[in-house]
Amino acid sequence: MNEGPDRTLFVSERVYQTLLLAYPKRFRREYGMQMAQTFRDLFREERRQGGAGRLVRLWVRTLLDLIVTAMVERSIGCKKNREVIVGDRRLAVVGFLFVSAPLYFVSASLLKYGLGVGLLFDPLEAFLSVAQRREVFNLVSPVVFLGGLGLALALNAYSVLRLNVGREEGAVVSTVRLEVKLLNLAVIAVGSLLGVTLLGYVFLENFAYRY
Amino acid sequence: MGESREPWDLLPLTPAALHILLSLADGERHGYGIMREVQERSGGRVRLGPGTLYGSVKRMLGDGLIEESEERPDPDLDDQRRRYYQLTGFGRRVAGAEAGRLSDLVSIAYEKKLLCEPGDHGLPEGT
Predict the structure, then answer these.
(1) What is the pTM of this model?
(2) B10-58 residue pLDDT tens
(3) B47 closest CB neighbour out of A34, A38, A61
(4) Theoretical Cys-Cys bridge with B65: which of A118, A153, A208, B60, CB 3.0 to 4.6 Å?
(5) What is the ipTM for the molecules in this complex?
(6) B69 inside 8 A of chain A by CB
């Protein structure tokens, strides 16, 4: 005899749980179970007070609430996502600015000494022909080049890597998640390449065996 | 978290948020408990849906107005999976500030003869 009402509760709860898909995944994960439990409590209470009309009114109220609040939660989620995307693009642009000085220097040097094209290197050489300027350049350039590269790499690594460190059963467990954000990854790739080139150049200049 | 801000930074509260704060003012409750309290206190005029309730709870947790209670109910008396919420110190101050703001508005309504006596809702009889 009790199977009828319990079946109604079971079906209603399943339908409500399916409708919860209207909410953003994160919200659902955090509150979905509690919402379903609250709906179950409401349903039981309305049924206890009697009348199919009460259950219909509960469903109407719940559906209206669900439509409005799901739209609100989705619009909040979209806004946050947009803010994150804009933030990551800003980091990529800042990274490119930091990388631009060493990129110019390395490209100019490679073109000049690799291909004999002085288009970029000659103006720099002319500028550095004054002894005082060359002295300042020699002092400042390692800091600007390597510091800029380091900053660009750190900022863009921060935007694509998510590090999680936790404790599970007495052991420290860490996970690293890489998010595919092309602009930030491009800055990291260019920055790393320039870093290796500059450090290789520094090493060869200072530690290479000379006859 | 919310302590670095002033209560009036968050005013006015949404009706749902104020009702939730009021229902938690005298002790911790779970979601359905909050709904029941709000419904009973308002004589059935205010019914929070699950979406409104948990959407508000999410934002109020973020604003530091409420927090999840670490106490879990006796498993014989209640479902242990339920989450209980309680007011934070900042939440209590915000609720007080909002009540004060509304009280000031009510005083103005009295002065302007929109309300005649306590309990008067300013609505024609029968509504």
Answers:
(1) 0.60
(2) 989 999 999 999 999 999 999 999 999 999 999 989 999 999 999 999 9
(3) A61
(4) B60
(5) 0.83
(6) no
